[in-house]
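Subject: sequence -> structure tokens, single chain

Hey, anyone have a minute? Need the predicted structure for the following. Not urgent.
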Amino acid sequence: MADELPTGAAPANATAPSYSLVGQYIRDLSFENPGAPGSVMLGGPNPNVSVSINVGVKKQADDLYAVEINLTAKAERDATVLFNVELVYGGVFRLRNVPETTLPPLLMVECPRMLFPFARQVLANTVQNGGFPPLMMEPVDFNGLYLQNLKNLQAQSAANAVPN
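Reply:
Had a minute. Here:
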């Protein structure tokens, strides 16, 4: 057969950098509706919703990394908390032949970008199941978040390097 490789030979792209999503999971999910059932009967103006997002990475094995997105959202109207929701949504990624210099942006930008639509859906469904309209988050600029975190780390390193 013309497509077969000689014994012991590897495909030409066997050393090419690659990454794949092995699996996804919810590590933590919390929803608080402190004013229920009254909070779902209230009318009035739209609440103020604050959302925060963080990304964490932990090496699991030689080529496996757990990437987690931590999402928190809080809705308030007139200093009354309508709901609090926290979600830690993760994925396990297999990285092969990825240069060390490429690891941080891959793990902190591209991997979270793959996970985000699923995390956003879990968050929206949870808020809706709590009696509120679904919380539809805008897409996140993970590259901007990564660059800001990198800038903060560099500033901290510079501050710590100043001799006393």
